[in-house]
Amino acid sequence: MLRALPLVFVLAGVVLYAVLGGADFGAGIWQLLSGPGERGERIREHAHESMGPVWEANHVWLIFVLTVTWTAYPVFFGSVASTLSVALFIAGLGIILRGASYALRSGAADGRETLLIDGAFSIASLITPFALGCTAGAVAAERVPVGNAAGEPFSSWLSPVPLMVGALSVGFAVYMAAIFLAADAVRTGEREIADSFRIRALAAGAVAGAVSIAALIVVHADAHSLYAGLVHGGALATMIISVVAGLTTLGLVWTRRFEPARGTGALAVAAVIAAWALARNPVLLPGLTIDQAAASHDSLVTVVVAVLAGGVLLFPSLALLFTITLRGRSGARGTAAAATLADFPLRATPTAPRVAVVLFIVGLGMLNAANAGWCHIIGVIALFGFVIAGFTAIVPRELADDS
Amino acid sequence: MLTFALALAPVHQKYLLEARQMQALSFTVHIPLVCFGIAFPVMVMFVEWLGIRTGDPLYRTLAQRWSRIVVALFAVGVITGTILSFEMGLLWPNFTATFGGVFGLGFAIEGFSFFLEAIFIGIYAYGWNKLSPRWHLLSGVPVVLTGFTGSLMVIAVNAWMNHPTGFRLVGGKVTHVNPLQALFGNPYLWSELIHMYVAAYMVTGFVVAGCYAFAKLRGNWTRYHRVALTIPLTIACLASPMQLLVGDWLARDVAVSQPVKLAAIEGLYKTTHGADEHILGWYENGQVKDGIAFPHLLSLLAFHSWNAKIIGLQSVPPNDRPSAINVVRISFQIMVLVGSALAALGVLYLFVRWRRRSLPTSKWFYWGVVLAGPAAFVCLIAGWVTTEVGRQPWVVYRVMRTAQAVTGAGGIPVGYGALVTAYAAVAVAVVWILRRLARKPLELDPVGIAPSPGGPGTLPTTGSPA
Question: How many Cβ pairs closer than 8 A exist between chain A and B?
């Protein structure tokens, strides 16, 4: 149980990344498919804006997945990363290109620059989920043996099942993004944009569904043990949930209920990932079960505690971010609060320079002359005190006024 | 030497040096961004607080403009940080596979810190007009705290690599793993952590101040520029003398816990009582040539004793010594000499303030501040080169060799070339965007500048779904 628990966290991270990060990737891809003219520009603008302030947050899920994996299943991580280094490196380059072009866009001065930057952003948004999907597909299709780069560097992921999973990842990303963008457009009152994305969502949903069926056929032909796992027991039940959720989503989009469609769409993606995980359970890599791959007991306990404690901090913070950014402007309520802030010497106090000098000397003595650990603690505190006292003695604000 | 079982079968990697350089490049790109993530929010918050306290719109304008730079640099930091976590597997799979259970926890917690920092930077950057001033200011506090915990975790892992504890090797296998002991029970963690944390303030302070010093030299010298110069400059000028003392503390820890690294830093071949310290010079055939020798100074500095014994490189077999002694030595000397120059600049600034009660007027001082930004960056990288190259040939000191950690995959030179190209492009892009942001005309608005869609530095306010 303990040995599988971090894997549950990792899969939850994968689901969140696939849904939230995937929607961001999809929004980038839609910029590529925006069409010409002013309408296309508005669609691109909307896709860009909706990524908004949660841009970084959505992509940190990937870091969460990586760090928990290498802590809890080190051998699995090392084997996968070394054999699939080419696919992962391509994903890494995609992440660099995507992030750089996103940051750049805010500096673009004219339409030509924006178009160029959006193009780079869209291509990166396409490459990254595709390469990551191929990586996941190669693991699912048992293409990664245990060992340091023991598998094929190219054919391990450039083979039918991984490529189908890559395509599926892109399909899901595009589908989720269209739903999310339609919902955003409704909230911001842009009906026309919402309609554009409704059509796109329906088309993308049909394509994603077709790719899913094609993927199943390819799995049947190329990775029979995975197929056998998928059509039995819990995996089959989860697959059915996914199909139902996917069809419900299409229905909700058809009837323009985009907000609930977000939830059912996310459920469909989560169920697909869960089904594939259940189909492979309890094997991570050929000849390596979850129990064999798991780190030692103490490592697992600490990482589980860390993830739970981190989650307690993380989810309320995320909720706060979404609440604040989705809320409208609350107006300036500033002036009243200003007066209640604690008093602080804005002018130089005559003792501050002397205090700073004394603290520096204390720091020198305790940190550099003395050798005991407790002296060093006092020394460090004294030196931080020196910086703060020195800062109050200098009063940079007053300096700026005088010159 | 102990026999040691790797988690994955050993391989031969022809391009080990290229793999190390690729990792070094990734760190060199990432670390300055980390510095800005740690120290810049503190400065922005201070300026915002001044604005609330005085009601002067200038401070709010400055804080808003700076907060956009925080966001842009953090966004780039997310990329470079993701690349680093990829490289843990792409370049060093056997290190991660063998010791992931020991040190991995640090990165897992760091991941959460990073996540929380991203969230609250989002709240801070997009909340200017959505939160009351006090709540907005408070929303910066988690950014500062997570900046500290994030660096604590990463330095904890690095300190563990320098002084590995929290596990046992039984029959060559890693057992009895205690991750908390490994990461936080390491007495040599704290000096390294504080050294890095203070470095972040020096780098950020001098780089930001350097930009406004350059503006002054070009004739832009309004009150806005003076505020934007004096706050980061004062922090950096106070941090740099402190850093000399912290650095001395760290060096004494290194002398105890990693004697071979100290020997490489000083180019000391023979174990010596009352060892000399050499400034400048070149290490060759077991001695430092053309350096200025200070008798007994090394023993004095390292152990506070005239005749203390300093362990030389000779104490370990040649293949257990760093191969690039001069790289370690020269990096260390660059860090100390340039760092001392920065401390001197800091003391000069503090002295002028104390005696003349004003800013220095000489244009040479402002040229010094302009240079101090890149100089602080050079010190930062030189320090990391010293500690990382000085630990070689080990990735985990005296336990695992870097050659044992490296990937067996081919194509490292191709990946290296691609990464160099990509990062060169990012560097050009960052400079371009920062110049664009800086060129935007000043707007003094007491309520705040609502970001205009598509304008420089603006990021939209509608969000992805929860």
Answer: 422
Alpha-carbon distance of B150 to B394, in angstroms, equals 25
Q: How far is Cα A376 from Cα B35, in angstroms, rounded to an integer?
A: 24
Reading the block at residue A383, the tokens are 């030196």
Alpha carbons A214 and A110: distance in angstroms, whole number: 43
Whole-complex ipTM: 0.87
Q: Which of A54, A153, A334 sits opposite B463 (nearest CB)?
A: A54
Report how far residue B332's alpha carbon sits from residue B326's, in angstroms, rounded to the nearest whole number.
Answer: 10
Interface test with A, best of B30, B99, B464 (most A CBs within 10 A): B464
Question: Which of A9, A156, A298, A300 should one mutate to test binding to chain B, selecting the residue with the greatest count of B CBs within 10 A?
Answer: A298
Neighbours of B283 (CB within 10 A): 23
CA distances from B397 to A114, B8, B161, B165 (A): 49, 19, 6, 10
φ/ψ (deg, to 5) at B66: -65, -40
DSSP B262-283: HHHHHT--S-EES--EEES-EE
Q: Is A369 on the interface with B (CB under 8 A)?
A: yes
Chain B (340-359) residues lying within 8 Å, Cβ to Cβ, of chain A: 350, 353-354, 357-359
Distances in Å between the Cα of B289 and the Cα atoms of A320, B281, B285, B332 are: 62, 5, 9, 17
- CB-based burial label for B12 (10 Å; 0-12, 13-18, 19+): exposed
* B365-413 confidence digits (pLDDT tens): 999 999 999 999 999 999 999 999 999 899 999 999 999 889 988 889 9
| Cβ contacts of A330 within 8 Å, gap of 6 or more | B129, B130, B131, B132
- Distance in angstroms (rounded) separating the CA atoms of residues A215 and A206: 14
The per-residue pLDDT for B441 is 63
Report the C-alpha dihedral over residues B369, B373, B378, B381, rounded to 10 degrees: 140
Residues 6+ apart with CB under 8 A from B376: B199, B202, B203, B205, B206, B207, B236, B342
* Residue in A170, A274, A258 with CA at minimum distance from that of residue A212: A170
DSSP state of B255: H
**Tens of pLDDT along A90-134?**
999 999 998 888 877 777 767 778 888 888 889 999 999 999 999
Contact B390, B261 (CB under 8 A): yes
- Angle, helices B57-90 vs A85-105, to 10°: value is 170
Query: Is the N-terminal amide bond of A396 cis, ω within 30° of 0?
Result: no
For residues A212 and A272, what is the distance between their CA atoms, to the nearest angstrom? 9
Which residues in chain A are closer than 8 Å to B97, comparing Cβ atoms?
A: 74-75, 77-79, 148
Which of A 39-68 lie inside 8 A of B, CB atoms? Answer: 45, 48-60, 62-64, 66-68
Residue with tokens 């290109």: A97
- φ/ψ (deg, to 5) at B292: -95, 120
Interchain contact, B108 vs A67, CB within 8 Å: yes
Query: From B445, which residue of chain A is nearest by alpha-carbon distance?
Result: A332
In tens, the pLDDT along A4-53 reads: 999 999 999 999 999 988 988 998 899 888 877 788 888 888 888 777 65
> What φ, ψ does residue B56 adopt, rounded to 5°?
-80, 120
Rounded (10°) CA dihedral A24, A25, A27, A30 = 180
Chain B residues within an 8 Å CB radius of A371: 252, 304
Model pTM? Answer: 0.90
**Residue in this structure with the two tokens 């980390």, named with its chain if needed:** B34
